[in-house]
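Try it yourself: sequence plus 2-acetamido-2-deoxy-beta-D-glucopyranose, in.
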Amino acid sequence: MELLPNPCAKVEGLKRALAIVILVVMLFAAGAECRRKRHSDIIRYSAISCRAYSASVTEFGGVGDGITLNTMAFQAAINYLSQYEAQGGSQLFVPPGRWLTGSFNLTSQFTLYLHRDAVLLASQDESDWPLIDPLPSYGRGRDAVGGRYGSLLFGTNLTDIVITGDNGTIDGQGELWWQKFRGGQLNYTRPYLIEIMYSDKVQISNLTLLNSPSWNVHPVYSSNVIVQGITILAPTNSPNTDGINPDSCTNTKIEDCYIVSGDDCVAVKSGWDEYGIAYGMPTKQLVIRRLTCISPTSAVIALGSEMSGGIEDVRAEDILAINSESGVRIKTAIGRGGYVKDIYVKGMTMRTMKWVFWMTGNYGSHADNNYDPNALPLIQNINYRDMVAENVTMAARLEGIAGDPFTGICISNVTIGLAQKPKKLQWNCTDISGISSSVVPQPCNALPNQGPEKLPACNFPEDRLSIDEVEAQVCSYERKHW
Ligand SMILES: *[C@@H]1O[C@H](CO)[C@@H](O)[C@H](O)[C@H]1NC(C)=O
Ligand SMILES: *[C@@H]1O[C@H](CO)[C@@H](O)[C@H](O)[C@H]1NC(C)=O
Ligand SMILES: *[C@@H]1O[C@H](CO)[C@@H](O)[C@H](O)[C@H]1NC(C)=O
Ligand SMILES: *[C@@H]1O[C@H](CO)[C@@H](O)[C@H](O)[C@H]1NC(C)=O
Ligand SMILES: *[C@@H]1O[C@H](CO)[C@@H](O)[C@H](O)[C@H]1NC(C)=O
Ligand SMILES: *[C@@H]1O[C@H](CO)[C@@H](O)[C@H](O)[C@H]1NC(C)=O
Ligand SMILES: *[C@@H]1O[C@H](CO)[C@@H](O)[C@H](O)[C@H]1NC(C)=O
Ligand SMILES: *[C@@H]1O[C@H](CO)[C@@H](O)[C@H](O)[C@H]1NC(C)=O
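Structure, out:
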């Protein structure tokens, strides 16, 4: 059975018997060499769970030539492997190659592993992307009213799913989507690269994501989510190429990521206006650490603007921002309802920023005109400490809502070095209140200085979130090849 692909057994033109004799001789003569060529390596990786069954996409007709469409191969492989959900789970290996594919769906107790030289190439043909319903907490697609294209890797109602690799690549080939979006030629909302909905125990790690049509990683209505070691690259003028957007998720960890994109590096969300209020599912217990971000037109970490289900208990630390519009940005509006509270950020280094801090209650951007003008967002207990910034145009734009001030803002131990031509007014504060300590340049009167003895004034929780207690296992895949 396995003789055919063996280059050592190429004996075309000879009689079968002779072929076997020659083969035997060859195996004796060159046995060592042939055996060296036919080998298997053990690939090891770390994951929340290891799997009992394995397959390669090539066993389901996959061809990694960059031309053949592999949607059916991926979907057939995963449909087949889904039978092992209750029997120890399964892993699907993607070998070196360029694997053109449309959207496909993942299953539970499942790992997708991309070899470092494997590239999933997203199809640019809209018919390779099924239309799916809008998110209930948004009421409509983000780009257009109505439905949206399903993401390249899509999963819903799953438990225990890992998307990882040895820095394998997912290339969204977004250029054509961006052109069509800018030209108003799309009837539906653009797809994301990875979207996992209504799922528990999710790991997305050690991958490079290139040129997404829109957002890159979108866990939504999910819990116990780990995003680790992801490199995200997209042109800084590409539309809405947000990096990682935890949306109505509980217990999420984003660690060791490097993101350069045309929109926010991390955007924390929880639904839009009346739809998000009705759905009522917050994002909470989120930790973000060791993030490097370049986002010239947006934020390193954005909270909102869709925050109608609430955002609470966000802890960010050890963040490096380069050439970004703002550091942390809270975006909301009248009609959003919901809340952003108990936000803790410490240890941020920023180089070349337009604004270090930006909060606005005037972001607008409504789903439709049916929002409730009495639905006011609550913004409270926002803590920023231990930061250094250089080449900054303006320290802070903090704009609350008249009659609905943003309160409990604490900023301590922050040194902001200004650009050559800084704004005259460095702190512009309206409808906000809080305190400051050891902040340079001197903040606005709404954040009175408590003196240097209050240097560590702003809280940062000491306890650990349960997502930090999840233990990684060392898993393996035996790759057999010639
Ligand atoms: C990612 O790769 C690094 C080595 O490059 C490894 O230390 C780490 O365990 C991997 N993480 C995951 C979650 O696979
Ligand atoms: C994936 O699942 C979605 C929603 O369940 C469905 O609409 C879509 O057709 C599925 N995609 C494929 C390739 O089967
Ligand atoms: C997925 O879970 C959601 C929320 O529990 C539920 O409303 C929906 O019907 C489920 N979908 C499927 C396909 O099971
Ligand atoms: C993964 O690949 C990207 C793109 O080539 C590269 O920038 C990044 O440094 C790589 N990460 C690791 C851990 O090797
Ligand atoms: C968008 O809708 C218009 C009008 O129904 C139709 O002519 C056009 O082909 C559609 N475009 C796409 C990309 O589906
Ligand atoms: C002030 O912030 C710097 C980092 O910018 C940190 O190294 C230092 O420990 C902080 N000081 C205190 C008292 O927390
Ligand atoms: C400072 O920022 C400006 C843009 O505001 C940029 O052109 C310049 O190169 C930056 N300087 C340094 C030293 O980074
Ligand atoms: C300060 O902020 C308020 C509210 O956004 C705005 O109306 C005003 O123009 C700003 N002032 C300056 C000098 O930028």
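One thing you can check immediately is this: The longest helix spans residues 16-29.
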